[in-house]
């Protein structure tokens, strides 16, 4: 196991180098004028005739290997370049936004996994009965809903109409507290930092701002967990050892919870890990609608504007998260199921 | 199941209990939501509305417009507005004197001096960033468009050939030439004289005062001491070139500001696209009524609308197409105002031959030749084939009007009686039959019109051309293609677009700002109209455009600009679609808001406050 982990870790820089090479080559296929979009973000900005100067100033017309070499040399010095979309050094822009995305991901993952597995188990136990059909329809509707439609729906009902769950990260008064010198940032995640600073009012406020996006992500994402849980549970319930347990006269609840559910959870655990990692990169629309300034919306904008420094930085950042996330999933899989041997 | 339902509702209740619908939310804070965020806080570089919205209230200028009256100036950091009558405009309109106000404090407590004014203009001229606004100042003072051209003219070599990307001299022997250039060309043009600042223009420049007032943030006044302390040009002749065309993010003023304006810059949260300004209590003039401004970029329309409805925003940016979603909301009022802007359609007379939008590249029914629009009949046919009124109704929901040419209404040179094309398909057919000796009608043609996705005006315009022109002859084919902005920009800058829709927002309310832009061979939109157009403009338009800018008699200028517009009509140099009437949704509790046609963006923080 330990050698397996070391081997996987040693491959990380090689993988990231390969990714950076591919992405940079793709960006390099674009003309310098296309890449000018980073500097001239809309037709309204086409107000000076010196734009050609920008191309030579930023070396957009240099040969691609030269440009890549320049970028890579800076990378080795810990400099990912300047983000024109984030208006800050790329690494700083990524690190500033990462906690918001992580916070949203964690808060969303909990209900997605808990509700998804609970519904999946219920579905399996009521196989082909009304409850099973109802839950599956409910989940499929959520899965079919475009995030932006459901998100706007949530925003209009719970914020515009009821005034309950506002968009953004914090209300103005709470933001004032968070940005004050007396408030210490430990994690960058407002809810956790608020608790660590003993500010329950800020914690509740941050939580209120999280409800809308979490609700949206939960509803549109839980169908997958439900489906995996249901099919895994159905498979387990037909196994011999479950029949044996029932034949021994064990209480049905014990049969389900101790014997069936534990084994049924093995594929669910794997999928849950992937869901968390996937959520990190899949919050673009929800972040935009709920005005949460996370990585998703930032990188989407970077891609639109062809801000190659941000794109490269984002790709490496997400690449690293995905590699580490998948490694953790693989390791946890081996722990959950002793039959699995990674080496 | 029941337990979960009960718990859920309890959670909703607990979280919601603290929500109280206050009469006015955040009564001392004005929250304006728009798209994007400032490009930079450096007034020497900024050339976008989002930056202008902030800079206009943090910094001040020598003069200002008298409220919304764009024909009258009032003094600000100058104690008088120069006129020929008060003797502050002299030498046939080439010398302007501005007596500098005393007792004015910058936000950090430093006192304003005439040297600050001299420094501000000189620093920006020597900075002259690519894609920045300093061309206006350089044109007014020196009759050149860039510092690079000015150096090339005076020194014999363009500055860009003398200085590397890090601001170092390629040949150290050039240092003396550039020091002399500063001492002999730049320094004498802006000088301090007995408490006044004197500007000496190389020739009369009629709109000079128009490039200086409030809202013209490229003419903001800095605190020299602070700028030098932060790392801007030190004011010396030796080494000034190190500060030329510095990258946007490398400018010391990129994210810092210290002005004399009614609001001081507090924070630019670039993660949230949010700028916070606080009232400056040491302001020399009338203090702002509101304590705090939050200028916030929220790109998603639905979110902006929801925040306005909930009262967390006081004013939002709204494209006209969303009017129906807002107009019937409670506690919302919609202000409107005619902007000094036009949206026009122009032809490329000599398309780049490598363009993908010419089809076969010949008049064989499957394409067009690169010089298709050099034939006046083609241009005229397109002009008759456009339904101008429907465009205004569909895209702007009626909130717009059509000027005859590129000079918007309310400006010198505008004349509603000037000739303009009307929608007339019969005449369009007639012109197509004459085009290219009848070959266009006989063989047909195929071309592609591009628009950048997300731009409804461009899309609608292209689709209207398609529908109307294809109805004339089954051999006519127009493909309408939406592309991402980077691709549109690429095609536009490479001269590959056969025709393009493009807008212009006034930098300053003078016809030169529009006429030069669209019609002069060196105008921003001159080049993209192709080599043949440039030749035409050099011969027929440039002389009169250049004469008009030096003419100080308003009546004569009016006639000259009317003449230019007649030439544009007769030669079908383009079609103006509309001048927009902008809509500004805000809460009914917003008081003191006033539309100014020249304002940067939509916010107006001058006298704004909140009260039922």
From TrEMBL, chain B:
Name of the protein in its database record: Periplasmic dipeptide transport protein
PROSITE patterns in the cross-refs: SBP_BACTERIAL_5 (PS01040)
Record Pfam families: SBP_bac_5
Protein's gene: dppA_3
Keywords carried by this UniProt record: Signal
GO annotations of cellular component type: ATP-binding cassette (ABC) transporter complex; outer membrane-bounded periplasmic space
Sequence ranges assigned to domain Solute-binding protein family in this UniProt record: 84-524
Domain of life where this protein originates: Bacteria
PANTHER family attached to this UniProt entry: ABC TRANSPORTER, PERIPLASMIC OLIGO-PEPTIDE BINDING PROTEIN, PUTATIVE-RELATED, PERIPLASMIC BINDING COMPONENT OF ABC TRANSPORTER
Family named by the database record: Belongs to the bacterial solute-binding protein 5 family.
């Amino acid at each position: 196991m330990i050698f397996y982990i070391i081997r996987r870790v040693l491959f990380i820089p090689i993988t990231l180098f390969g990714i950076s090479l591919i992405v940079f080559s793709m960006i390099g296929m674009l003309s310098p004028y296309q890449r000018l979009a980073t500097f001239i973000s809309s037709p309204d900005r086409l107000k000076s005739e010196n734009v050609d100067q920008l191309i030579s100033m930023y070396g957009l017309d240099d040969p691609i290997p030269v440009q890549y070499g320049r970028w890579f040399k800076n990378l080795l010095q810990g400099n990912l370049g300047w983000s024109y979309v984030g208006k800050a050094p790329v690494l700083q822009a990524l690190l500033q936004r990462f906690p918001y995305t992580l916070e949203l991901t964690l808060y969303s993952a909990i209900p997605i996994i808990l509700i998804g597995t609970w519904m999946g188990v219920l579905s399996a136990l009521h196989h082909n009965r009304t409850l099973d059909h109802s839950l599956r329809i409910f989940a499929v509707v959520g899965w079919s809903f475009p995030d932006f439609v459901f998100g706007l729906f949530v925003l209009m009902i719970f914020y515009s109409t009821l005034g309950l769950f506002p968009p953004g990260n914090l209300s103005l008064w709470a933001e004032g507290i968070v940005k004050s010198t007396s408030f210490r940032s430990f994690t960058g995640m407002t809810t956790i930092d608020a608790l660590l600073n003993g500010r329950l009012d800020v914690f509740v406020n941050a939580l209120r701002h999280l409800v809308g996006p979490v609700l949206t992500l939960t509803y549109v994402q839980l169908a997958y967990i439900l489906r995996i849980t249901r099919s895994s549970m159905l498979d387990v319930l037909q196994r011999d050892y479950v029949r044996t347990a029932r034949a021994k006269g064990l209480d049905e609840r014990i049969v389900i919870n101790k014997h069936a559910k534990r084994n049924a959870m093995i594929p669910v655990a794997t999928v849950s890990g992937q869901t968390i990692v996937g959520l990190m990169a899949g919050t673009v629309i929800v972040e935009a609608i709920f005005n949460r300034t996370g990585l998703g919306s930032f990188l989407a904008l970077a891609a639109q504007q062809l801000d190659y420094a941000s794109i490269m930085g984002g790709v490496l950042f997400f690449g690293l998260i995905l590699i580490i996330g998948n490694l953790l999933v693989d390791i946890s899989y081996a722990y959950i199921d002793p039959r699995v041997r990674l080496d | 199941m029941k337990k979960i339902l009960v718990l859920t509702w309890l959670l909703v209740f607990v979280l919601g209990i603290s929500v109280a619908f206050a009469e006015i939310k955040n009564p001392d804070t004005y929250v304006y939501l728009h798209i994007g965020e400032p490009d930079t806080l450096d007034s020497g570089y900024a050339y976008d509305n989002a930056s202008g919205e902030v800079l206009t209230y943090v910094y001040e200028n020598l003069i200002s417009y008298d409220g919304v009256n764009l024909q009258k100036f009032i003094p600000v950091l100058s104690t008088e507005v120069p006129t020929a009558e008060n003797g502050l405009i002299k030498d046939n309109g080439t010398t302007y004197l501005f007596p500098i106000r005393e007792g004015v404090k910058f936000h950090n407590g430093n006192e304003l001096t005439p040297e600050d004014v001299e420094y501000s203009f000189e620093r920006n001229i020597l900075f002259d960033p690519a894609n920045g606004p300093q061309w206006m100042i350089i044109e007014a003072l020196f009759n050149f468009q860039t510092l690079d051209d000015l150096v090339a003219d005076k020194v014999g070599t363009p500055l860009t050939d003398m200085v590397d990307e890090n601001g170092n001299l390629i040949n150290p022997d050039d240092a003396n030439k550039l020091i002399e250039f500063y001492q002999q060309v730049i320094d004498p043009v802006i000088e301090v004289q007995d408490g006044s600042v004197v500007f000496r223009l190389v020739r009369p420049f009629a709109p000079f005062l128009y490039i200086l007032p409030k809202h013209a943030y490229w003419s903001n006044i800095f605190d020299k001491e602070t700028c030098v302390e932060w790392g801007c040009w030190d004011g010396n002749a030796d080494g000034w070139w190190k500060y030329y065309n510095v990258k946007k993010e490398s400018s010391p003023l990129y994210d810092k500001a210290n002005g004399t304006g009614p609001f001081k810059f507090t924070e630019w949260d670039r993660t949230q696209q949010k700028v916070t300004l606080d009232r400056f209590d040491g302001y020399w003039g009338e203090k702002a009524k509101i304590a705090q401004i939050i200028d916030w970029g929220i790109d998603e329309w639905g979110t902006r609308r929801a925040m306005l409805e909930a009262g967390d925003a006081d004013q939002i940016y709204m494209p006209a197409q969303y009017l129906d979603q807002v107009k019937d909301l409670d506690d919302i009022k919609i202000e409107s105002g005619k902007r000094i802007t036009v949206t026009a359609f122009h032809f490329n007379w000599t398309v780049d031959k490598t363009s993908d939008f010419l089809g076969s590249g010949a008049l064989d029914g499957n394409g067009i030749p690169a010089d298709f629009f050099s034939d006046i009949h083609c241009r005229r046919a397109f002009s008759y084939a456009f339904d101008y009124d429907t465009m205004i109704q569909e895209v702007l929901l009626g909130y717009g009007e059509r000027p005859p040419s590129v000079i918007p209404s309310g400006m010198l040179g505008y004349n509603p009686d000037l000739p303009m094309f009307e929608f007339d398909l019969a005449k369009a057919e007639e012109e197509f039959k004459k085009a290219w000796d009848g070959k266009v009608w006989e063989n047909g043609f195929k071309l592609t019109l591009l628009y950048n996705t997300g731009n409804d005006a461009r899309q609608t315009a292209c689709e209207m051309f398609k529908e109307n022109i294809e109805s004339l002859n089954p051999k006519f084919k127009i493909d309408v293609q939406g592309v991402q902005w980077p691709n549109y920009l690429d095609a536009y800058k490479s001269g590959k677009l056969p025709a393009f829709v493009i807008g212009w927002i006034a930098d300053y309310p003078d016809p030169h700002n529009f006429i030069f832009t669209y019609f002069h061979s060196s105008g921003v939109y001159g080049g993209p109209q192709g080599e043949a157009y440039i030749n035409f403009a050099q011969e027929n338009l440039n002389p009169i455009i250049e004469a008009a800018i030096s003419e100080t008699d308003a009546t004569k200028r009016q006639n000259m600009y009317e003449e230019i517009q007649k030439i544009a009509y007769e030669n079908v140099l383009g079609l103006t679609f509309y001048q927009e009437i902008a809509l500004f949704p805000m809460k009914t509790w917003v008081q003191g808001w006033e539309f100014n046609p020249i304002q940067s963006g939509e916010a107006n923080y001058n006298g704004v406050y909140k009260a039922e």
